[in-house]
Amino acid sequence: MALSTQLQAVNTMLGYIGEAPVNSISNTAELPVSAANAVSILDETSKEVQSNGWHFNTEREVTLSPSAADGTITLAADILQVDHEGTEDIDLVQRGTSLYDRKEKTDTFTKDIKVTVVKELPWDSLPEQARRYITLRATRYLQSRIVGSRELEALILRDEFAAKANLETSDNRNADRTIFDNYDTYTRVGINRTTSLF
Question: Are 4 and 135 in contact (CB under 8 A)?
C-alpha cells in the first residue's frame, strides 16, 4: 500500500470542507486561499503532533559536543525536545536552538553530553498512521477557521480520535514497551536497571 502524500493530505482536508482538490502544492502563492491555508495548517499540525515525542521520531544516546570557540551547544533546527541521559546531576533545557544548564545557570559546556532528542521529521519520513492522524487533526483546525460548523467538527473529531488510537497502538507496538519502562514501576516493585527480572 502506497503511503499518503502531502498533496493527498491537503486534498483530504479540502474535501472535508467541500473545496475542490488541487493538482500541486509546490507553489503556495498560486493556490486558492483555502488550499494555501490547508498547506500551512498541515505543517503547523505536523510539528505540534511530532513535538509530543513518539517512538518513530525519538533518538536516544545522541552525543552533543560544545563549540570549540565558546563552549555553547547549538541544536539542529529539527530538534523539538532534548533530555539529558546518564547519572550526572545536570538539569538541561532547550532555549531556542541552544542547550542550557539550569542548575549551573550557564549555556557553556566543557565536555560532550549524551541526550535523547525528539526530532521533527519531514512528511515523507512519517509512518502512515502519523500522516493520517496529522491530516485529520489539521482538517479540524482548517474547518474551524474557514467553515466553523459544529456538526462537521464532530464528524472530523470522531475520525481524528480513531486515527490517534491507531497511531498510539502502532507506536507502542513498535516501541516494544513494557510496564517496566516506567520509572514509577521500577521504584514500586524494587527493580533497578541493573537487576535481572529472571
Answer: yes
- Name the pTM for this structure: 0.84
- Count Cβ atoms within 10 A of the Cβ of residue 113 and give its class: 0-12 exposed, 13-18 middle, 19 or more buried: buried
CA distances from 4 to 11, 130, 135, 140, 175 (A): 11, 10, 10, 18, 23
- Domains in the chain: how many in total? 2
Summarize pLDDT for 138-194 with one digit per residue, the tens.
999 999 999 888 999 999 999 999 999 999 999 999 887 666 555 455 456 555 544
CB 119 within 8 A of CB 57: yes
Report the range of poorest mean pLDDT among 12-16, 94-98, 163-167. Answer: 94-98
d(CA 72, CA 116): 18
| Domain limits for position 154 | 6-51+123-181
Q: Report helix, strand or coil for 75.
A: coil
| 43/127 same-domain check | yes
